[in-house]
Amino acid sequence: SGICEDLSAAVCAGNNHNLRMDVQRREGCRESKTLGSLSLEITNQRLIMRASGCLERLTAAEERFHSLSSQIQKDLMERIKTSQHLLTETIKQSADSLLPQEWSSVPLLVLKQAEALLAQGDRGLLSLWLRSSLRHTLTSSLPNFLGQLKQASLLGQQELRRPLATLAGVYQDVKGQRLEAAWKEAVVMWTERLVDVLPAELENPHLRPLSLAGVTALRAALDVAGQHTYHWAETRLAMALSGVRKRLASLYKFIPRECVVTVSVPLLNLNFSRAAEHGLLEIMLEEWLLRPLQALASIRPTAELYRLKRKNMDSPFRHEALLVADQFVVTFDGHVYELPGSCPLLLAQDISSNPSFTLLLNTDLQSSLVIRMNNSTINIQRTGQVKVNCKNVVTHGYYSDHGLSVTKGSNNIQVSNQDGQSVSCDLLLELCSFTLDGWLHGASTGLMGTNNNDAGNDFPLRDGSQAKTLEEFFHSWELKPECSKFTETEEQFSKAAMSPASCGSLFSSPDSPLSSCFRV
């Protein structure tokens, strides 16, 4: 009595496909602390398992349990000795009567057996727990296995960062020769064969040194070209495998310092209503076998070669435009101007008849930036909340669907697709950048200008012509043209704003929109 301590186990099954189990310890009537937990949940087509528990907390609970059991054992021994003393005295006092002696002998025998058990120093349940295979698994085998699994995961990610170096190591293990040495030997062999097949005219003593010098230069050029090709191919292959590396990293995370392990496994997007109607086996065969075969049959080699060329060859440059505090725009080609604050505006859009991207700036209090990519709509609200198709709220983590990926951190948001279009926002700096791959050269129009490296045509109208004033430019890209009014003062200001900003006004003047950054 008076000891406000307990161990408790709790199991919670939620209706949103999650299960959680906790073992908690309360000490001194304070708030309970978690000794260990296990949770399972299904979110974004992934099965996520998280488990936590530190050996130090378990050992502390065991020591406390041992202390309390020792104290209870001591109290029981004292009470047994007192009871034995009383029963012995009773037997002595009733030496002339058999009935009290018979009644006292049985309890006395039981007390002696209890004393013998307690005197052995056995800890009972705690001793069984300490010797159990479950405790050995939780405290030794499982942490060692998780550590080995983490090392294997990190090693796999490291190998994927340098895939050709890994293959070169395998080649060296099999052949017993470094790949670089094999390449140099091959170059020497080719150049020697070239020397052997040189025309007889080059046997002239005057031409022979020149021909040998040319062969030596060719050998050096081939060697350098081979090294550069190797490094280029490794870089491109590592970039192509970055998605695999990220998926491998997201499968398993183990943090020994925090005693937390997370396993995330992707789930098949099965239609369970169809599975109930047609059978699970039929649906799995369709998803795993027939659909991949159908996709393989529809591959066009020319299109795949073009896609591979675009993916692996460096594009000439990248185009980037900026939106600052929902008020200022830096166009793709470097013009800076302030936006009118009264109307929703179209910042950028694909010039094709079926736009692959659209970027809108809203004026309502909820949604600030609206992005249209891959037939999906992403709303980035002023509060930092991100919604996909007006219903899927992206919390801290990663969302991916049909080639579109949305990543949300504590202060940053990134939206991108496989076509080289990306939007990145820093909530603290109130800065959003819109980036287009170099292969999309000249594919954009809108208030962020044309991404064609020509600053002279950075104020396009919807019909493709160039605006004569900044007001005409704004009015062309307003989504509600009736919401703005134009005055002569604004026209004069617009003409001034159309002139290029000077370095002094941008980087020295206290009125510069960049002045808050001068100190850093």
From TrEMBL:
**InterPro entries found in the cross-reference section:** VWF_type-D (IPR001846)
TM ranges: none
Q: Which residues form the VWFD domain?
A: 319-484
- Report the Pfam families cross-referenced here: VWD
Record PANTHER family: AGAP008810-PA, VITELLOGENIN DOMAIN-CONTAINING PROTEIN
Protein name according to UniProt: VWFD domain-containing protein
Species lineage, top-down?
Eukaryota, Metazoa, Chordata, Craniata, Vertebrata
